[in-house]
Amino acid sequence: MKYLVVVSTVFGLVAAAPAGAAPGDKATAQMKDQGGKTVGTIALIETPLGILLTGDLTQLPPGPHGFHVHAVGRCEPPFTSAGGHFNPNNRKHGFHDSAGPHAGDLANVHASVDGKAVVDTFAAGLTLSGGPRGLLDQDGTSLVIHAKVDDYKSDPAGDSGDRIICGVLGKAP
Q1: What's the CATH number where 101 sits?
Q2: Cβ-based neighbours of 21, under 8 Å, separated by 6 or more
Q3: Which candidate in 65, 102, 133, 137 is catalytic?
Q4: Which of 38, 101, 138, 158 is the most buried (most CB within 10 A)?
């Protein structure tokens, strides 16, 4: 079997995947605010080199917001039930830290003045199931949007403030 090897210095990742591997499992997260109102859905699609996250959100405060995969699949307000960032390799937070990033660190989400945001980002090296980097493990995982911008360096959460939106990942058909 031939392998495609991709080296990413941004994520400190070396991944080997079967060449021409097809997309795998799918999951979704219904994103809710602290009042329980659904503000959007994020779809996750496993690719040979990680997870693609896409979706539309509404009713966010305008501006940039930290966005992370959290280690526990629970979203009870104030969303501390989601635990810390998904971090199976015990790395530091942030893309600007040479000892980082957490596996659950994602790019900021930017909401327009009308509160709408488009999510279109990639989480290198993660899977939906299987192994230590699998998101659909026994206690699940969640996606969390924070009140402030992630500075991509402050440990443990990029100084991104309160958790304002949360969604538990669930396997999609």
Answers
A1: 2.60.40.200
A2: 48
A3: 102
A4: 158
CB within 8 A of 4, min separation 6: which ones?
A: 16, 17, 18, 19, 20, 48
Q: Where are the alpha helices (DSSP H) in the chain?
A: none
Task: Specify if 60 maps to a domain.
Answer: yes
With 0-12 / 13-18 / 19 or more C-beta atoms within 10 angstroms meaning exposed / middle / buried, residue 108 is buried
Active site residue 146: yes
Taking only the tens place, the pLDDT of each residue in 18-65 is: 332 235 789 999 999 999 999 999 999 999 889 999 999 999 999 999
Q: Which residues pair with 163 in a beta bridge?
A: 146
pTM given for the model: 0.83
Structure tokens that stand for 61 in this block: 């405060």
Select which of 68, 133, 137, 150 is catalytic: 68
